[in-house]
Amino acid sequence: MIVFTIKNSRTDSVYVGTTKDNIDERWAMYQLAKDLPLDAPLYSDMRKYGVVCFTIEEYDFADSREELAELFKEAMEQFDGISLKGMKTSLPRTAVYPTSGGALPKAKPAAKAATKSKTASSAKTKSKSKAAVKADGAKAKPKPKPKLSSGRTGSAIKEKRIKEAIALEKEQRSLLKLQQIEEQSLQMKVILGNLDARGSTLRDRS
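User: That's the sequence. What structure does it adopt?
Assistant: Structure tokens below.
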């Protein structure tokens, strides 16, 4: 634990504080906090004279809280210092932060209430629409369309024509086969007749 001092070179005033971290981190926190709307003598002087007019130094180190309190008291008496204990380095969460122009933004108290009312009304509307859809669905059920007989009649006629065409084709094929058989038998008769004629000629010569 460290006891440190911050000296203002313009006024020779000395601020005394304590920290568990190193003094550079503490000084960086003070530099950021001076731009916030916080009330403290150090921040007022930093805004007035500028950061360059201040120097932070380690005064002493302590191993216990009792020793830290004694060293802090000693430094306060030695430099007639201004205590930094309890000085805030950040705004509370509920605070309103200033804008870049320095003015505080306008509060919007009715925003949450309006959002809640919109959400509630939209939920009611959805539930009503769902109920209306269910009621309409229960009242008006679609009637089945009557089946037309023309489709069946047309398909039956087509099937009959196809069957007739197949039967006709079969009949034509059978007739063609019979014709081929008759032609083949005639050709065989002619061949056999020719063979018999040759045989008789050879006999006569012998």
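The chain has a mean pLDDT of 77.
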